[in-house]
Amino acid sequence: MTNKARKYLTRTFAAVALAGLTFGGLGGYSIWRDMQPAANVATCAAPQGDGHPVLVVPGFTTDDDYMQPLHARLTAAGYKVYGWNAGTDWGPDAAKAATLEAQLQKAFDDNGKRRVSLVGYSHGGIYARELARKHPQLVREVITLAAPINMDSKNISAVHDIYNGPNGSVRDALPVPATALYSKRDWIVSAADGQTMAGKTAENIEVKPGHFALPFSPEGYGIILDRLAQPEGKWKPLTPNACRNPAP
Predict the structure, then answer these.
(1) Within a domain: residue 8?
(2) Cross-strand pairs, 139
(3) d(CA 92, CA 42)
(4) pTM (predicted TM-score)
């Protein structure tokens, strides 16, 4: 079997496995459960945005269409939302990385040179972090959702190498504020792997929803909207009373 054929079969298997976990009986029920607002958390008014640009990066085997519910929620909150415009994320890819880099520059230029917030889901969180590491002057903050930040993997480090060369690591602290959402109920990325290096402008936030529900859950929306609403240059860690169950 050629390397090309082996790579194709690996990607096909990954896509089928993801679909099975997402829509299969047990997986489907778990996702439905995680999508429900917590019974003991009151509905609250999420803060409105200031109109700055937000670039959303999809996860492995997903694309911009998959992330549309999050796009819509952020748009409704007042942000100018951009997709990565690079099709499906099939893993580290220099051409897709270049497209994402161009999208960051476009979002920055289209909005009067306003710095762009990056929201990256799963593997897309690695793209977002490494892009911010290369272009901190263009990035306002990075929010990762179940991203394998601490995973020891050649596929993860490959994204770092594409943007930033062989020096350093995906585990190194970012030069911009960073928020990492992780879950102990994540089937794909462990809680330990989903956390960023702590620092004055970095935080790790444990959430209830697992890997597939997190980007579309009330709790996920609430935290993302809270983090994005912070005034530029005045980043602070999430407060205990932050809105985690925003009204639709």
Answers:
(1) no
(2) 116
(3) 40
(4) 0.87
